[in-house]
Design goal:
Two copies of one chain form a homodimer. The first copy, chain A, is α/β, with parallel strands linked by helices. Helix content of chain A is 44%, strand content 16%. The first copy, chain A, folds into two domains: 7-95 and 210-269, Rossmann fold, CATH 3.40.50.1860; 98-208, 3-Layer(aba) Sandwich (Rossmann fold). Chain A has a six-stranded parallel β-sheet with strand order 4-3-1-2-9-10, sandwiched between helices.
C-alpha cells in the first residue's frame, strides 16, 4: 500500500525552509509542496483571527495540489491556527509546536523550560499548554525576541550586534535557571550557535523542526500514507505569495536541492 | 466654497502616523481617515505588483468613506503604486516621495543627496527619478536600512544597538560626502537624533512628512477642497487590517489626539 500524493508544507515566508530541510531528510521519497506567504509575512506580530484566516487560504491552495497531509512549519500559525484548521479538514496536519513541546518535556532534568519565539507564539501560550498537558509540574518561561527574525534575514548570523541583542533577550531566561530552551521560531536555528554560547553549555537547545519531521514519518507509516521508494529524489514544488527574489536566495542558502523556479500565487483569492 | 468630506491617509502600518501628525498640524480643520495595513505590513520587502494590489484595495476602502483626497503616507507605496493608482482614480493623491525629493533638491549645496529607506523604496529608484527630473546633475546615493523599522518598533530609540546598526548602515553614505539626507521611511524620524549625530552637523536631514503636509495644504486651496473652519478639532477615524493592540500603543505615543478606538477592516475583501 502506498500513496504517491504530495505533502504540503507552509510557513509565513522563508523560515519554514529549516523545517522543510528536516522533512526532506526524514522522508526522502515524499514529494513536497512548499508555500511561503511572503506577501503577508511576518506572522509573529499579527492577531489570532488574522493568522487563522491566512492559514485557511493556504490550506485551500494546498488542497488544489491534492496533498495527503500538511505540515504547518510556522510556529505562530501552529500555535494560533492548527486546532481550528485541523477540525475543519479531513487530511492530517502536523504543527511544530506539539513535537517541540514533547521533546522539551522529555529533555529537561530540573523541570524548567524556556521558550523563545515571536510575540504571537509567546502570547498564544501554546508551548506552555502542550508542555503542561504532558506534565503539569513543569515550569515554562517564555520570551519574545522580535529582532531575531530581521537580524537573520539581514544575514548577520555571527555578528556582534546579534550577540548583544541575544544577550539582552536571553538574560531574563538565564535568571530563571532553565536547563532546556525551545527555539520556537523557524529562523532561530540559523543563529543556534550564538544562542548556545549565550545560554552556556548546561542548557540544551530544542529545535522543533527535527522532532516535527520524525512525527510526520510516524504519521505516514501509521496511516499507510507513505510513498513508494524512488530511484531519483522527487521534484519538490515551491510557491510564494510575493515574487520576492529574496526567497530564492534564502532557499538556496538553507536547502541543498535545486529550486530553479518558484510559482507566485495570489493567495487572497483562495 | 468649502468641502467637508474627509481626507484619507494610508500606510503599511503605524509609521504613517508621523505623516498623519504633520497633516493634522498643517490642515487642522480637515477630518482625516487613517488606514494602517497592519495585517500585511511591512511593505518595504515586497514586490511592486503586490504593493500596487494592496494600494488598490485600500483606495477602494477609503472611497467608501467618501474621501476627497488621499495621502499615501508610506514611502514604499508612494514609490511603487502612486503613479498607477493616480491614473486609475478621479480624486487627487499626494505621496511622500515627490515632496521629499523636492525639498532635498532645494536643500543640497554640493549636489550630493543621500536617501535611506526600505529595500522596496531604494530599489524602486523613485527618489532618484524625482530628484533628477528637477535637476539631472544632482547625485543621489541610496542605502536600504532594513533593521531600522524593527528597532523603532522594539522601542530602542536611544540605544547602543540602534547606534551601532546606524553606524554600519550610514558609514557608506558618509563616504559619499553627501550634505543632505532624506529620511525615506516614515519610521526614521523617530530615530532622527541618532541619525543626525551619526551623520554629523554638516548633513541636513529631510523629513518628507513636513513637506507632504504643506503640499496637501496647497492642493486643497488650489482646488477649492478646503473644509470650513471648525470650533472644535475634527474627530479623526482610524482603521487597521489587523486588531493589533500595538497600533493603539504606538499611535498614542506619536499623536497627542485622542484615539480611543480603532476599526478593524477585512481589507482583502475590497
Amino acid at each position: 500500500m502506498s500513496d504517491e500524493r504530495p505533502i504540503g508544507v507552509f510557513d509565513s515566508g522563508v523560515g519554514g525552509l529549516t523545517v522543510f530541510r528536516e522533512v526532506m531528510r526524514r522522508v526522502p521519497d515524499e514529494k513536497l509542496i512548499y508555500f511561503g506567504d511572503t506577501a503577508r509575512l511576518p506572522y509573529g506580530t499579527k492577531s489570532r483571527e488574522t493568522i487563522i484566516g491566512f492559514a485557511r487560504q493556504i490550506v485551500r491552495f494546498l488542497k488544489t495540489k491534492d496533498v495527503k497531509a500538511i505540515v504547518v512549519a510556522c510556529n505562530t500559525a501552529s500555535a494560533y491556527a492548527l486546532d481550528v484548521i485541523e477540525a475543519e479538514e479531513d487530511i492530517p496536519f502536523i504543527g511544530v509546536v506539539k513535537p517541540g513541546a514533547k521533546v522539551a518535556a522529555a529533555t529537561t532534568k530540573n523541570g524548567r523550560i524556556g521558550v523563545i519565539a515571536t510575540s504571537g507564539t509567546i502570547s498564544s501560550g501554546m508551548y506552555g499548554n502542550y508542555i503542561h498537558s504532558i506534565d503539569p509540574d513543569l515550569k515554562v518561561f517564555g520570551k519574545e525576541c522580535p529582532l531575531f527574525v530581521p537580524l537573520v534575514e539581514e544575514g548577520w548570523l555571527h555578528d556582534s550586534v546579534t550577540r548583544e541583542v541575544a544577550s539582552r533577550y536571553l538574560n531574563e531566561l538565564k535568571g530563571e535557571f532553565i536547563d532546556t530552551l525551545i527555539l520556537g521560531c523557524t529562523h532561530y536555528p540559523l543563529i543556534r550557535r550564538l544562542i548556545a554560547e549565550e545560554m552556556g553549555e548546561d542548557v540544551k537547545l530544542v529545535n522543533p523542526a527535527y522532532e516535527t519531521s520524525m512525527a510526520l514519518r510516524e504519521l505516514l507509516a501509521e496511516r499507510g500514507l507513505e510513498a513508494s521508494p524512488r530511484e531519483k529524489p522527487p521534484k519538490h514544488e515551491f510557491y510564494v505569495s510575493d515574487a520576492a527574489e529574496r526567497f530564492l536566495t534564502f532557499a538556496k542558502a538553507v536547502l541543498s536541492c535545486d529550486i530553479s523556479s518558484t510559482g507566485v500565487v495570489d493567495i487572497e483569492r483562495y
